[in-house]
Amino acid sequence: MTVEELARHLAVAFQEEGKREIRGIAALENAGPDELAYAEGERALSRAAVSLAGLILVPRGVTLPGRTTLAVSHPKLAFLQAAEILRPPEPQEEGVHPTAVVHAEAVLAAAVSVGPHAVIERRARVGAGTRIGAGVFLGEDAEVGSACVLYPRVTIYAGARLGNRVIIHAGAVVGSDGFGYVFADGRHHKFPQVGKVVIEDDVEIGGNTTIDRGSLGTTLIGEGTKIDNLVQIAHNVRIGRHTIIAAQTGISGSVEVGDYVVMGGQVGIGDHVRIGSRAILGGGAGVLPGKIVRPGTTVWGRPARRLNEFKRMYAHLSALPALAEKVKTLSQPSRRP
Amino acid sequence: MTVEELARHLAVAFQEEGKREIRGIAALENAGPDELAYAEGERALSRAAVSLAGLILVPRGVTLPGRTTLAVSHPKLAFLQAAEILRPPEPQEEGVHPTAVVHAEAVLAAAVSVGPHAVIERRARVGAGTRIGAGVFLGEDAEVGSACVLYPRVTIYAGARLGNRVIIHAGAVVGSDGFGYVFADGRHHKFPQVGKVVIEDDVEIGGNTTIDRGSLGTTLIGEGTKIDNLVQIAHNVRIGRHTIIAAQTGISGSVEVGDYVVMGGQVGIGDHVRIGSRAILGGGAGVLPGKIVRPGTTVWGRPARRLNEFKRMYAHLSALPALAEKVKTLSQPSRRP
Amino acid sequence: MTVEELARHLAVAFQEEGKREIRGIAALENAGPDELAYAEGERALSRAAVSLAGLILVPRGVTLPGRTTLAVSHPKLAFLQAAEILRPPEPQEEGVHPTAVVHAEAVLAAAVSVGPHAVIERRARVGAGTRIGAGVFLGEDAEVGSACVLYPRVTIYAGARLGNRVIIHAGAVVGSDGFGYVFADGRHHKFPQVGKVVIEDDVEIGGNTTIDRGSLGTTLIGEGTKIDNLVQIAHNVRIGRHTIIAAQTGISGSVEVGDYVVMGGQVGIGDHVRIGSRAILGGGAGVLPGKIVRPGTTVWGRPARRLNEFKRMYAHLSALPALAEKVKTLSQPSRRP
């Protein structure tokens, strides 16, 4: 595709060589003369000047003398749009691999691809254009929407429901039993884990992440929420829309999380916590059971506090040796008037 | 099943409509007129008054005027007993799926179910009534007891031994090599990881949890212990009976854990630690290598301390800005007599 | 194998019974009269005196009267060398299991073993003597070197490259998409995750660990590095050679780690951190985004500090109640002269 054509697709004007051929995308520092890169921020723009990239997406108002560029309002966003244009999804082999085991009562829509050794159980449903990877397990009555991608070895327990355009990476488990027992007679009796799990549209779930079904109610992951690798989401958790959950975070039972929340990695949230929309939880933050994190606030630390408060406390903690020294001086009788 | 029949099964008396038909279980807030719920504690009992549940399990001595109830000594426990009665385990398809690969020298007891694409290697043994899910791998000489459930994609390494009624969720790994090396000549040489792993009766293991075999000795999970998702249990760890280990907890090599211990989520335990029976480790607690947590104590924090001590320290930490201010005042010469 | 023969293999002299037959290895406390054990350190040597082991590796200069021993410079290292001699790798069934699905354009070298239900996609390459376990998935264009072991249910995404003698435990995922989005129009747009992942020679990767491919660049795990179970390694991370990463550690995007680094369990590292060679990160340490850990330093805590500094601060923290008491006393007017 030429620079001209790409500019037309993105509905922007190009600078310099419109006929140049662009074949792929790359980072600024590795891009070659037939590759597209982007530059956002001062440091990137100075590196752009010496990049070998054939075409660079730059912020509006920026020119790089002698370089072929497209000036756009949001270079990183334009970059991923261009990436989709330049790298059309490879033609997927449709159809069911002969080694897959698909129950006669399962329902597969048009243009579904089912990989080798996948298992699709009774009454499971798969929407149009969805790709079921090798060795995926789809339990009885499970539903997967259209245009989803389930990478190899994903396990979807019976009855789980996934929306459209859901992406699930290898080894993830959706719909396993929650962790609930009743203690009596010296042993733990398993509490029924018979609820639902619903994953809404446009959710992405990372590799080896686990999401339990509800015990009696429902575990819900809202539209557009993105979950990284090795995350644990317990039974009856309800997560809002467009929330970000980084790797190895653990969310205990019955937690409610709002929309547009951001959680760093290794966050831990006790049961029955409520996290308001647009709250930010710094990496490793720990929220005690039953607590409330107010909408829009940023918290950090274990136990988590408002960021300002945490920082102030932490600064005092760092100054503690000096403080102790001062108190020692003050309490020496000889130094007192 | 009618209220009358259920009451007879639980050996208790019913109040109000004995002929009412009950078909399933549900939470108090979602239950319909043909469903059973339970109410324990004041808040639940007040919600019970407005629940649509057809039948409610309540504590002895409680009556809900006009509502059909069963008064029992432990409503939550009775609820799960009733759940088992109301939801008999669905008739499992017995037999070996034609796509499963079962070695000629493997030994399968009666009424075993082996799912599609499962692999059972030489001399592996599976007890009566056990369900081996799709894509499960059972290595050479591995033993699984009777009435176990192995969900899809579980991997049991060669030689591992599981007792009876063990439940293992999707993606869990039992018997992998421990993490042990000897450093010499500028590189890490793998120490032999050839020990055993024994999972006793009635253990449940969560999704994508990993349990390493012993290096030379044995990794042991005691009877009735319940382990959540994404937990790591290293080589030579010995865990007692009826212990609870919540999600994402990590237990390092050669740790010994007693009976009836409770660990919150994301606990970390250094190697060679000893945790006494009935100890409680709060969520996120970290125990330093070689330490001892005494039986019956509750610890919290990183590094873990007795709960009282931790709380006192933490209160002082919160008061640190005020303390620093006070010291500042004290050290101002003008303020001193 | 006799004691004599083993001594010859290790090029050392034996004490006492050269003709004794040794059939296996064991820990000092469990070894029988036909087994080899090792004793290093005073405590082990005193236990060695009462061990039933048929042969004991001891440090040079040590004699155990009446016991058959081999005196070596590094008993633990000699033990693992002897273990390799005594337990030759069991003859592996070569060839491709009939249920494996190997693409016609995949390339398998000599003496490769491919287990049941493994899937090897188009143009994937497998080196000589490599064992591909049951249910392993090897994506298009993926490369695995020679003498590797991939345990069951490992997933290698398309295009990933593994060196020689790489060991990967069950359920691990290599080459999944990194966690990167661009926020615009109220939702998260997926940033291209099209980079590479390279695992060099002699790396070992634990069960259910996840390693993401680069977004545009490369995720690199250097030669001889050992990674435990349930570790998360994000996109564009570069890890040096012979580094040790214990279980449940998480490394965020674009982190650079040097050679011979040691990380304890549950370490968390923010994005763009640089960890110098031979640094040590204590268990549970957390390094803030963008920070630098200098070569050879030991850090601990969250946020991580130099070990000395952390210990001093922590001692002061423990003494905080006493300090507060002292300040209280100082500020009582009656107590002042």
Task: Describe the protein's architecture and organization.
3 copies of one chain form a homotrimer. With 337 residues, chain A is of the alpha/beta class. Chain A has 2 domains: 3-86, MurE/MurF, N-terminal domain (Udp-n-acetylmuramoylalanyl-d-glutamate--2,6- Diaminopimelate Ligase, Chain: A, domain 1); 96-309, UDP N-Acetylglucosamine Acyltransferase, domain 1 (3 Solenoid), CATH 2.160.10.10. The first copy, chain A, has 5 helices and 39 strands. The first copy, chain A, has a 12-stranded mixed β-sheet. A 10-stranded parallel β-sheet of chain A has the order 7-10-13-16-19-24-27-30-33-36, with no helix packed on it. The model of chain A has no long low-confidence stretch (mean pLDDT 94). Chains in contact: A-B, A-C, B-C. The interface between A and C is large, with 60 and 56 residues.
How many DSSP E strands of chain A?
A: 39
Unreliable stretches of chain A (pLDDT < 50, length at least 5) are none
Helical stretch tally of chain A? 5
Largest sheet strand order of chain A: 6-9-12-15-18-23-26-29-32-35-38-39
SSE-based structural type of chain A:
alpha/beta
